[in-house]
Fold this protein.
Amino acid sequence: MTLNLEYETEIKLHLDYESIITKVVNMALDLEECPYEIELNLILTDNKEIKDINREYRNIDVPTDVLSFPMIAYESPGDFSILEDEDNDSFNPETGELLLGDIIISVEKVMEQAAEYGHSEERELAFLTAHSMMHLFGYDHMEERERTVMEEKQRQVLEELKIYR
């Protein structure tokens, strides 16, 4: 796995964010039974930058906690079999790794939401990473049934890692 992790804010999380993110990504890959080594880009930023990105890509002019940019157009969530039929644009030609996508997390939102929900910043960062990984696997939460499935998968990731509220 190649995890391209960039920390692009002066606001500091006082925890081992790289270890937390890596554990969550690996557990999500295991639970989803991803058959490939992956490449993932993850940026930790602040509210101003994530607001700019949110406005540019979603026409929503407010900061959000996490943005997910999947590289795969799944026919059904978590179904990696579609990659067998593609021209392999989904793979890095140099490493052979599956280009899973990009995750952008607001460090400020991690801190704000941890305080708001009464749990640790570690738990909030882990949750946002798990949530975004599910989006990169094609899951969504726009409809009730989809939301239930996605929330259960997020819960499983955190529970396996013993990261609780």
Remarks:
- The beta strands are 2-7, 38-45, 66-70, 98-106.
- The chain has one domain: 2-160.
- The two ends are 28 Å apart (CA to CA).
